[in-house]
Design brief:
It comes from Gordoniibacillus kamchatkensis. This is Bacteriophage SP-beta YorD domain-containing protein. Pfam families: XkdW. It is a single chain. The protein is mostly helical and 195 residues long. It folds into 2 domains: 59 residues, 2-Layer Sandwich (Phenylalanyl-tRNA Synthetase, Chain B, domain 1); 123 residues, no CATH class. Strands 1-2 form a two-stranded antiparallel ribbon. Strands 3-4 form a two-stranded antiparallel sheet. The longest helix is centred in the last third of the chain and has 35 residues.
């Protein structure tokens, strides 16, 4: 039991070291209230709590099994959601070898990358004979992509993102449904595998 927290639970306006002092003499008897000067709102002395009152306060401060279960379920839900988001934003290694560089590149897929690729794809679709200037994540500057190269790459990127959205959230629902129905904290032992 944390005596200071129990006292502050019972008397929320009390201030340690001003209104009371807890001391431990290291004699094996544990901490105790060494000084008590707690007053009520009218300035009257408040009786010092008994050990039983402190213990009861401490126990009532502890989270219930339902609180622990709800917290564990929320944590697992966040863990699965983060795993799905990490897959979506991990990037895409293209297999398309660009004519301008003679190699394939890695393309970012975070939200800004998705917005940039979408805007570039719209531009490319409206200018099918033009070179598309776009910066893959593994380059320092924008490089030339033919229209066909960029369409092939952006289609693959968006297909991958959509696959993770579809598969990832199906996986999320598959994992979360059992987590939401378990009846103990110990039952939430779900391992996250790649969707």
């Amino acid at each position: 039991m944390d005596i200071v927290k129990a006292i502050q639970y019972l008397h929320p306006n009390s201030v340690p070291l001003r209104d009371f002092m807890v001391q431990d003499d290291s004699d094996g008897n544990g901490p105790y209230i060494a000084q008590w000067n707690v007053k009520d709102a009218d300035g009257n002395d408040v009786p010092q709590p008994t050990d039983e009152e402190l213990q009861a306060a401490w126990e009532s401060m502890q989270p219930s099994e339902a609180d622990l279960l709800a917290a564990a379920q929320a944590a697992k839900k966040a863990e699965v959601s983060a795993a799905v988001a990490a897959k979506i934003t991990a990037g895409y290694r293209s297999t398309v070898v660009l004519a301008s560089t003679g190699k394939a590149h890695f393309y970012g897929t975070d939200l800004v990358d998705q917005q940039n690729m979408t805007a570039s794809r719209v531009w490319a679709d409206n200018h099918p004979t033009e070179i598309v200037k776009y910066r893959p994540q593994d380059e320092l500057a924008r490089i030339d992509h033919t229209h066909d190269e960029f369409v092939q790459i952006s289609t693959a990127v968006f297909d991958r993102i959509n696959w993770y959205l579809d598969q990832g959230y199906a996986y999320y629902r598959q994992i979360y449904a059992p987590v939401a129905t378990v009846d103990s904290v110990n039952a939430i032992q779900v391992v996250i595998n790649d969707p």
